Amino acid sequence: MTFYLPTKIIIGRNCIRENASLFSALGTRALVVTGKRSAKSNGAERDVRRALEERSIPAVIFDRVESNPSITVARAAADLAREVGVDLVIGIGGGSPLDAAKVAAVLATNGIDDDTLFSNAFAQKPLPVVAVPTTAGTGSEVTQYAMMTNDRIRSKSFVISDDIMPRVAFLDAAYTENLPLPVTRNTALDALSHAMEGYLSKRATAMSSFIALESIGCLGRHLPLLRQGAGIDLNVREQLLYASLLAGVVIAQTGTTVLHAMGYSLTYFKKIEHGRANGILMGDYLQYLLPEHREKVMTVLKTLGFSGIADFKALLNDLAGEKETLTEEEIRSFSTIAMTARNIPFTLKSPSRTDIEDMLRSSFRP
Length: 366
Ligand code: NAP
Ligand code: ZN
Prior knowledge:
With 366 residues, the chain is an alpha/beta fold. 53% of the residues lie in helices and 12% in strands. Helix 11 (258-270) runs antiparallel to helix 12 (274-289). Residues 138, 190, 193-194, 260, 274 line the site of zinc ion.
């Protein structure tokens, strides 16, 4: 069994301010990578700036990362990093800015084309990365993955390297306090899919499964509030951020499976948010595994607080809202793309193209 987690995880209110000295240990000039708005409005960028100022570390801000970032935006951030001569990259935001920060850290020290990047064949060590998550979903603050929209293959491509695992992750749930309800729901569904897929992965270990169930239980206790859209206070936000972190620790060990593989096309072609795509597919994914892996699937459901798939699907329908429609042609083409994803082999039961078509078809049935 292998378990690798090189990230120092610091959780708590004002944790950036109280641990500013950690930045000095990592670099002398920083690039701060964010999305367009939220890092400013939720206070995270201000707290990072102040901590850097206190330690006399000059910083330049790159605030142009869009959701599901393209490689072009990560290259622009890397160009800025080189121009200014930074030796530290700090990502603030949801998974999109965190992943763009990781890729910028690679490209700042490696002048390589996209194919070399996605084959993870970079010769120089990336710059060190610090992560400040402001959504509770991706767990990117503790993973070796960075997911980029890749127009050439019309899907997501991953950079995977232990060297892009953040050195430090600062988790202050106050930054997530004003997350809009749809983003809160979608990102919680992403965290749940990570914990669930990690538990139901061929690569699961005793340690990863233990953590996965802790995450699933924590999410299960709070999903009813997300369904109602009420009572999501700071305490709940802390729990969601914690569950998302644990789920990130899980996929850092196990990777994801066919559920994520199916979701990529829904995001690329139908513009369905990453977590919501997984949420729409989750019930039928469990149904697919149930006959051969009843005990494990039932453990997931019971840990979530459900006695069967039907009740869980009703919750997912409420969280995911009205579904888009998929044509038969889309179902066929999305299945073909999903079959090429590198996380497919980790699925407990190897799916055929027909299995994937069936899951997509039944998930989008009104
Ligand atoms: P996101 O794309 O990072 O952000 C979604 C939206 O939420 C943006 O409009 C963002 O606004 C806003 N937002 C973020 N934090 C906020 C806050 N505290 N308050 C208010 N609004 C806020 O969404 P995400 O679901 O977190 O990340 C999705 C990406 O992560 C996808 O590309 C996915 O493939 C990737 N992912 C990566 C991993 C990994 O291990 N690396 C795992 C799973 C998913 P701004 O743009 O203004 O910031
Ligand atoms: Zn995900």
